[in-house]
Specification:
The protein is an alpha+beta fold. It is about 40% helix and about 10% strand. It is found in: Cytoplasm.
């Protein structure tokens, strides 16, 4: 195990790590201990209410999620890092959502899959630390294992968890990705910050499906991000009209957050829009073959929902679009599609235009 010898040297190492992190494209680095007992209790209460829906993986791993030392034996610290993703060149989000001929894709998913980008950078950071201190035990994560990343980000001072349950930073808003390095390196901790949501309820009020059932409490079963990304079956009829033209994720709660006026634009070319996904025409997307879907979205996080769910989501958006010959033609072209799931959503969409 690597072991900085003094408090002074460990703090110097932390300062160096923060410099190295910035050189690798991260905007902030923190260090947390591994006591997640408070977050564990909140997670258990959330699971008991069934708010995780069909995300059974949230309960499958038992205590691994809240006990880093069980997931990676020897872990005593978690290095946390964040990376901005908001692309300045993307079409205005509200304008896209206001045009029913277009499809809205959450701004984090317009470019390359952040899992791959962040993981490579975290590995490089870990290797740089090893060069400085010698061999150490570590493992990197980016939303890729049972990790309570928001709780760790909060404990390490990257921000506080807002009423919409996203991590908020007073100087940078919430448009950033999180990543972690579990390590046996006895680093000094970085201090948590106080929360600053105050009496604001903008995120709660704007949610199209009222998924934020109370401050700091999200019922994922109602959340458009869950419905369009995590849910694999039929989307409940009651939520379909509320989804509008959101075909992959939903940014409403972040778009209205006052703290995001301080959000920084990404400098990472990997996160810039690809395939016109910042303002795509729904009928064009709906015409893609499965081969086109796989080819055009190679390296994109969208690919993980699969072609069938992609068509399902677009069918709902077309059902919510203004009636036109183009929309009706696109829907009718899929009416005999081999997937029962797609046929069901296409039929619903056509009924909206009767």
């Amino acid at each position: 195990m690597a072991d900085p010898n003094t408090v002074q040297s460990s703090r110097a190492l932390l300062a160096d790590m923060q410099v190295w992190a910035r050189s690798l494209g991260f905007q902030q680095l923190g260090v947390s201990d591994i006591d997640l007992s408070a977050a564990e209790e909140q997670l258990q209460q959330w699971l008991a209410k069934g708010f995780h829906g069909e995300m059974e993986f949230m309960e499958r791993h038992g205590s691994l999620r809240s006990h880093p030392e069980q997931l990676v034996p020897g872990t005593i610290r978690v290095i946390t890092a964040r990376m901005d993703y908001w692309p300045e060149t993307a079409a205005d989000a509200w304008q896209v959502m206001g045009d029913s001929d277009l499809g809205f894709v959450s701004r984090y998913a317009l470019g390359r899959d952040y899992h791959k980008v962040m993981r490579k950078r975290l590995l490089r950071l870990s290797q740089r630390i090893e060069e400085a201190v010698g061999a150490m035990g570590y493992r990197v994560f980016t939303d890729s294992a049972p990790v309570l990343e928001k709780a760790l980000a909060q404990k390490s001072g990257l921000g506080w968890i807002g009423k919409h349950t996203n991590v908020l930073n007073r100087d940078n808003g919430s448009y950033f990705f999180l990543g972690e390095i579990y390590t046996d390196l006895p680093l000094p901790l970085t201090e948590p910050v106080t929360e600053h949501c105050g009496s604001c309820t903008a995120c709660i009020d704007i949610c199209p499906t009222q998924a934020i059932v109370a401050p700091y409490e999200l019922d994922a079963r109602r959340c458009i991000s869950y419905l369009t990304i995590e849910l694999r079956g039929s989307i409940p009829v009651e939520f379909r009209p509320m989804m509008g033209n959101r075909i992959y994720g939903c940014d409403d709660c972040q778009l209205v957050c006052p703290w995001n006026k301080f959000a920084q634009m990404t400098t990472e070319s990997a996160y810039l829009p690809r395939e016109g996904l910042d303002a795509p025409k729904l009928v064009d997307l709906f015409s893609w073959t499965e081969a086109e879907f796989l080819q055009r979205l190679e390296g994109s996080p969208i690919r993980r929902i699969g072609y069938e769910c992609w068509l399902r989501n677009i069918a709902i958006a077309l059902g919510n679009a203004e009636t036109s010959d183009e929309v009706l033609s696109a829907l009718n072209a899929r009416l005999e599609y081999h997937s029962e799931l797609i046929r069901e959503h296409v039929l619903w969409a056509l009924e909206q235009h009767c």
